[in-house]
Amino acid sequence: MKKSPLLLFLVCIPFILQAQKKPEDKKASEKKEFKVDSTKVLTLDKTIKTLYNVISAEKEESRNWKQFKYLFHPDAKLIASGMNTDYEYKAKYLTPAEYIKNSQKWLKMNGFIEKEIHRSVNTFGNIAHVFSTYECYYSKDDKKPFMRGINSIQLFYDEDRWWIINLYWAQETEEHAIPKAYLPRN
C-alpha cells in the first residue's frame, strides 16, 4: 500500500510547527501570575492571615501585591510609627500603593517573613479592632526574629467582606517592650 504524500505531510505538520516555535524566554516562563482570591476576606481570621501571608516571602521571591491591595479599603492607610533621626516619635501615612512602591525592592532583596504570634480582637457591629503581635524573620529557616512589634488593625465589614481600613504598627524597642498581655501564653 502506497502512502499518499499529502497524508505524510499532514502527519508531519505538528512536528514541523513545533520545531519552528521560538524557545520561550526563561524569565517569562518563571514569572508567577498572581491573582486575587476573593474568599480570603470573607472572615476576619482569613483577612488577617492573608495579610501576613502576602507580605511574607523568601529572598528573591515575589509577593502577590494584587491580593495585598485587595485587602484594603480604597481609602485605607498604612501607618508606620517609630523614632526618626532626631529621636522624635513620628507616624508616616501611606496608601497601599505607596507602601508597595517604598517597600517591595527591600522586601524582595532581603527576604521578609512576618508571623503573627498573638491576637487580641474587639468587635462591635461591623467594625473590628485587632492588636496583632508579630515577629519578623529574613527567612523561614531563621531561628530568632530580627524584629517584633504590634500591628493595630482596624477593619470594616460591609455585609459582603472585611476591609482593612487602617494598619498602624510599632516595633518593639528596649524602652517599649511588648506587654505580656500581647504575647503568647506558654
Keywords, separated by commas or semicolons:
single chain, alpha+beta, Nuclear Transport Factor 2, Chain: A, 5 helices, disordered N terminus
Describe, in plain words, how this protein is organized in 3D.
- This is Nuclear transport factor 2 family protein.
- InterPro entries: NTF2-like_dom_sf.
- With 186 residues, this protein is an alpha+beta fold.
- Strand 5 and strand 6 form a beta hairpin.
- Helix 3 packs antiparallel against helix 4.
- The protein is globular.
Record the strand order, biggest sheet. Answer: 2-1-6-5-4-3
* Assembly type: single chain
Number of strands: 6
**SS content category:** alpha+beta
Number of helices: 5
Which architecture would the CATH scheme give at its second level? Roll
How many domain units? 1
How would you state the average pLDDT, rounded? 87
In N-to-C order, the SSE pattern is HHHHEEHEEEE
Distance between the termini: 83 Å
pLDDT below 50 for ≥5 consecutive residues: which ranges? 3-26
Globally, the shape reads globular
Q: Sheet with the most strands?
A: 6 strands, mixed
- Considering DSSP H and I runs of 4 or more, what fraction of the residues is helical? 25-40%
> How much of the sequence is in beta strands?
25-35%
Which SSEs are present, and which pair or pack?
Blueprint: H1 5-20, H2 26-30, H3 44-55, H4 65-71, E1 72-83, E2 89-94, H5 96-110, E3 113-124, E4 127-137, E5 147-157, E6 162-171
Parallel strand pairs: 1-6
Antiparallel strand pairs: 1-2, 3-4, 4-5, 5-6
